[in-house]
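Researcher: We're teaching a course module on how sequence relates to structure. For the next exercise, students receive a sequence and then see the predicted structure as tokens, so they can try to spot secondary structure elements on their own. Here is the exercise chain.
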Amino acid sequence: MMAAIFCTFILQIFIRYATGSGWFTALFGPINTAQFGWTVEFILVLWLWTIFWGNSFVVRDNDHVTFDIIYNTVGRRARTVLAITGAVIIVAALWISIMPTYDRMRLLRMRSSATLPVTMFPIYSIYFLFLGAVGLRYLWRACEVLRHGADREVHVLPPELAKAPEDRA
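Model: And here is the predicted structure for the students to work with:
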């Protein structure tokens, strides 16, 4: 998808700067640059899909920014409770939002894109995949923490870094 974004971007640059030049007009004749307005919307759609697809299936849990100051200072049992509680809250928030989001996006089935030959619903349908996949990921995380505890979590600092700075010497 990033390659398609890049190629479309290069096409935009070419259309903007080359088609207005004298040599291009002499070789190919005048070109209506308004016919290339679809490139902006196409890049936006690809970017949207790249973000949601990547977050659903590519980005690992330890690649996310976390606020784990409290999490890393408490004991194993408290970390287990925090990890399970956090995962369940994320699953609930994502999955509860599916139906209200669908109700809102049903309106998009009637609207079509300004420049692309497609209705808006398929463009934004990647969001439902994101909600489902990330919800399943955090449900799996909660199950793993229940089975094995929070010490196998990726957010726990190694023991030598978990000590206070004055204790490391």
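Model: If you want an answer key for the exercise: The mean pLDDT is 85. The CA atoms of residues 81 and 164 lie 23 Å apart.
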